[in-house]
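R.M. (postdoc): so does anyone remember the format we settled on? I'll just put the structure tokens first.
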């Protein structure tokens, strides 16, 4: 029975709790037991908040018994990546430097999920300060992919992706500073949405005005992603990009058919290397959309060339935040984080300003693409499936079955994701099959600003004809 409960979607669980067919206590106990059982195998959690979650579940059950008004996620377990503040529960940033850090307030999306009745079960693993696309750190060790534990779950929201994929709570909050929701979601076969800049407030971002980091939903089903987004989106004056009321959503796509929808298809975005199975699976997903009436238009756009601009901003930001820790604590930091900080310290003010100008130019290029009549841009999420654990993010990244072809990791493995952190456009990854080795592959969908729910409409069409949520990884006991 417990295994059955861990396979409920958030939407199903909330409905069952509301109808008094499911106990929040029973659901939370099942998820906590699964999380504890999986820890030696996956290591998806930094902290499992068992007693807090049990107390919240008992309160949720009492509220049902008393007939109180229930929120849309009442009694549903969720987890939060350990870069995101949780009041009363430590937020380590994946680093020994913050191992005992307990925030005094929740991040806005956490507070909104709690207000909707969701129950926080724990904090999921991340590399230190989310600095790389794999999930390991000196503080927490290595997190593994539930589809193949010799592979990485991606990063930096790798613990969140592994947890959702394995049934350790149906929904999770991730963060995305260059693909850090979408990369692990694609590696683990789930959905991951980087919302429009400002749609989900991020009041604790280090640089509110230059922010390119986002908080968003990670789920197994489109319905759960939509429900979660509805709960966490909306204005908050403490975030300048979120200060104004949201514009109206685009009109929903008509049921069934996609006639009149123009999808720009960019199989490559300046990257020469693409895994053959990724190409085949993502192209098949695009053909499914075409069969429903969408017009598919090949698009040529070079995003890989923006790698240097992205790196300047990433490295300089981390150096600005963390360089002061180096003299006393360098030996406690991940070697790749130390190298990232060192490279950031060598960046000049002129380089940083040039990179922000490139960000503006890239935004204008993407806006122009949509103004020319493309409704949605589609790409592979990654150029290759999840690689082995333990890779050095500064080493050449190979694509294509060990052929020896390689390049720098951002421009080679995920040139599709980081550009939209710079431009602010909503970007969603959806599962589109698995390779012969059983590794998941993702398709990325991108839309104009604040067309987040249009992306979910389109994902819903794919989910109907190419379902994925019925597939579960089999973890060793």
């Amino acid at each position: 029975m417990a295994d059955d409960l861990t396979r409920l979607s958030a939407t199903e669980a909330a409905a069952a709790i509301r109808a008094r067919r499911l106990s929040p206590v029973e659901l939370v106990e099942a998820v906590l037991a699964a999380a504890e059982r999986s820890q030696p195998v996956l290591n998806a959690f930094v902290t499992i908040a068992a007693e807090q979650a049990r107390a919240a579940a008992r309160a949720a059950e009492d509220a049902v018994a008393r007939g109180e008004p229930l929120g849309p996620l009442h009694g549903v377990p969720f987890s939060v990546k350990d870069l995101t503040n949780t009041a009363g529960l430590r937020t380590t940033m994946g680093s020994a430097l913050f191992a005992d850090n307990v925030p005094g307030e929740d991040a806005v999306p956490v507070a909104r999920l709690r207000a909707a009745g969701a129950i926080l079960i724990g904090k999921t693993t991340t590399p230190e300060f989310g600095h790389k696309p794999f999930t390991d750190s000196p503080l927490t060790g290595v997190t593994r992919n539930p589809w193949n534990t010799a592979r990485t779950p991606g990063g930096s929201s790798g613990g969140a992706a592994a947890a959702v994929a394995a049934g350790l709570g149906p929904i999770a909050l991730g963060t995305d500073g260059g693909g850090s929701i979408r990369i692990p979601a694609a590696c683990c076969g789930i959905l991951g949405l980087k919302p429009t800049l400002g749609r989900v407030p991020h009041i604790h971002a280090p640089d509110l005005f230059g922010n390119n980091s986002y908080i968003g939903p990670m789920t197994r089903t489109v319905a759960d992603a939509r429900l979660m987004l509805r709960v966490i989106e909306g204005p908050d004056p403490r975030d300048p990009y979120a200060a104004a009321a949201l514009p109206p959503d685009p009109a929903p796509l008509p049921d069934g058919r996609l006639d009149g929808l123009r999808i720009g298809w960019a199989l490559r975005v300046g990257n020469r290397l693409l895994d053959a199975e990724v190409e085949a699976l993502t192209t098949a997903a695009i053909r499914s959309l075409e069969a429903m009436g969408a017009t598919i238009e090949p698009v040529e756009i070079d995003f890989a060339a923006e790698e240097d601009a992205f790196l300047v901003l990433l490295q300089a930001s981390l150096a600005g935040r963390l360089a002061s820790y180096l003299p006393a604590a360098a030996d406690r930091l991940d070697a790749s984080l130390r190298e990232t900080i060192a490279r950031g310290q060598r960046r000049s003010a002129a380089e940083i300003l040039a990179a922000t100008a490139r960000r503006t130019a890239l935004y204008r290029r993407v806006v122009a693409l949509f103004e020319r009549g493309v409704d949605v841009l589609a790409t592979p999420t990654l150029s290759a499936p999840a690689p082995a654990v333990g890779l050095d993010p500064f080493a050449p990244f190979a694509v294509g079955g060990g052929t020896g072809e390689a390049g720098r990791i951002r421009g080679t493995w995920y040139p599709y994701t980081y550009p939209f952190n710079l431009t602010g456009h909503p970007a969603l990854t959806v599962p589109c099959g698995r390779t012969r080795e059983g590794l998941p592959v993702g398709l990325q969908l991108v839309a104009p600003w604040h067309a987040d729910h249009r992306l979910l409409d389109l994902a819903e069409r794919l989910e109907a004809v190419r379902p994925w949520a019925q597939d579960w990884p089999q973890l060793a006991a």
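R.M.: ...and that's the designed sequence above, right after the tokens. Also worth knowing: The radius of gyration is 21 Å. The chain has one domain: 2-465.
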